[in-house]
Task: structure prediction
Amino acid sequence: MDVFVIKGGRKLSGTIRINGSKNAALPLMTAALLTDEPLILSEVPNLSDIRNMTKLLGELGVQSDIETTDLGQTITHRVVDPTQSHARYEIVRTMRASISTLGPLVAKRGYARVSLPGGCAIGQRPVDLHLRGLEALGAKITLDGGDIIAQAPGGRLIGASVFLGGPFGSTVLGTANILSAATLARGTTIIESAACEPEIVDLANMLIAMGAKISGAGSPRITIEGVEELSGTTHRVMPDRIEAGTYMCAAAITQSEITLDNCPLDAMMSATDTLGHMGVDVNAVGSADDPMRRSCVISRTGAITPVQITTQPHPGFPTDLQAQFMALLCLSNGNAVITEKIFPERFLHVAELCRMGAQIHRQGATAVVTGVQQLTGAPVMASDLRASAGLVIAALAAQGQTIINRVYHIDRGYEHLEDKPAKVGASIRRANAEEFANSTMTL
Ligand code: EPU
Result:
């Protein structure tokens, strides 16, 4: 098992290129199940979640040819065996996004057996809305041995009105599942209370390029007219807004100036607006031709002003940046309040930040962060992907050395997390946990 060894306090300077989005790429990959033709995705990030999805698709009869380029991976997906429809627990338990194979499988093959994902570190995470949506499209859903079995009577789903609103708003992967499934259903589907996340828009754009008839993606009402079949296509995965937001926090906490290239600024307004209120400048530079692929300069010179943050569905503040902003607010000059409305238990980073000297008081889904003058390096434990990213942000500014254990969580969602900040001047390296413990290794 690896650890990150980070020595805080270094200024950052230079340029980081943002890679393709993990959360866009995963449902885009499962759309390969919807067509008999090749689906080519470029700028797919090289992450363990992507490798797991490639493995799962392989078990579902999809061959993936991977070419590595300077801009990430180009993966050509081809269905070679459409008889396989079982997403096994052994893979699903490593990656909840496996659930996004369910809609494409039942829509195209008329049958799916997908292991029910269990809870995870950030909460219970039910899939009831996914199942309700597929049932509305005519699928017969049963449970057997921990697996969801979905069957389309007569082999084809039927268009319907589907309401995807739940207690915490809509569901992102649920919307991806129903949207994908409805492309091949007979008749028209209306998804009401659809997720408006930019990753859903990216998926809809690709499905349209494959011949799907979709309107309204990016709004709470999406209309899909089912077609007989979809073709293959070539699609460039949108850049990762959460990776971009994480590096914005890295620049801000180290009081540095860095440039981000390939940054999806148009999808990040809640984060950049919040940074503005905190005294962090985010300035777009260069061509504005594609608002989802901008260059921008992030800098901070004054103190960090405390703010109130409430996580919400897009275009509200993203839950996936909550931990990183909390790390930044640990050094503000006052009291900040963070309320987590998407995953009310997503606070595993709080105790670890407190080990580094942060003052955070949590009550239920709200945390009050009282700014301190200085964080101090410490051994800490990564728990989930974004909590771990928050610890990296804190460590970059902390006095002394921080050891982050269990970095496999970070490898799920950040490509080369040790390389990109190091390239702009951070002191961060990966080490084998046992070797590190047995050595006097210094940076
Ligand atoms: N929910 C239900 N029923 C459902 C589905 C969801 O009650 O059937 C609840 C969830 O428990 C949660 C809320 O609805 O309280 C929103 O969950 P959602 O379904 O939108 O989450 P997801 O689609 O499973 C994606 C991202 C997450 C991100 C959330 C919210 C991927 C692969 N995952 O998950 O990303 O936090 O949307 O934006 O796209 C991450 O990248 O670290 C990550 C966890």
